[in-house]
Amino acid sequence: MLMTPEPMAGHLTEPHEIGKQIEVELALVAHIERALLTALGWRTGGGGNIRKLSTLRFVARSFERHLTRLRVLSEYGGYMNVVLETKPHLASEVRSLKEARDTLHARLERIILRLEHVVPNDAAAFDALCAELERYLDDLSSHGHAESELLQHSFAQEEGGSG
Q1: pTM exceeding the 0.70 threshold for the entire prediction
Q2: Is residue 99 part of a domain?
Q3: Are residues 115 and 57 in contact, defined by beta-carbon separation less than 8 angstroms?
Q4: Count: domains in the chain
Q5: Rounded distance between C-alpha atoms, residue 29 and residue 17, angstroms
Q6: Per-residue CA distances from 125 to 132, 146, 161 (Å)
Q7: How many CB atoms lie within 10 A of CB 78?
Q8: Of 41, 48, 94, 159, which is most buried with the most CB atoms under 10 A?
Q9: What is the C-alpha to C-alpha distance for residues 136 and 7, in angstroms, rounded to an integer?
């Protein structure tokens, strides 16, 4: 799904405004991630996989939409621009994080596609796909920590005057 930057995204030039919006958006993504984990943790007797799959499809699509929104906000007028403008020496780290995020996004798209085609009565395939989605969430969490570290490093240098 291709999203274009929102008109206001380019006008958020103050780091505190960008930070607050990203904070709110991250909280929304965290809520949806918890919903996804709740659905993944749903233990069915095997016959309930049809309902579990329906829930997983719905929540995974919502999760993907919100991650896409967060990516657009961070890349167009968001923290990536602020970091690049204020700390150009961090450009390679920003680029690496963007590439990792793009890889994670493509991976989520493949998982969602597989969710659309998995047969819920094939317990082995269904369980393997659920396990893959759980691993994805772990990897996404690690990526989020790396982004947070970059932001803290960038803004700590700016505020502390050591950068």
Answers
A1: yes
A2: yes
A3: yes
A4: 1
A5: 18
A6: 10, 32, 54
A7: 22
A8: 94
A9: 31
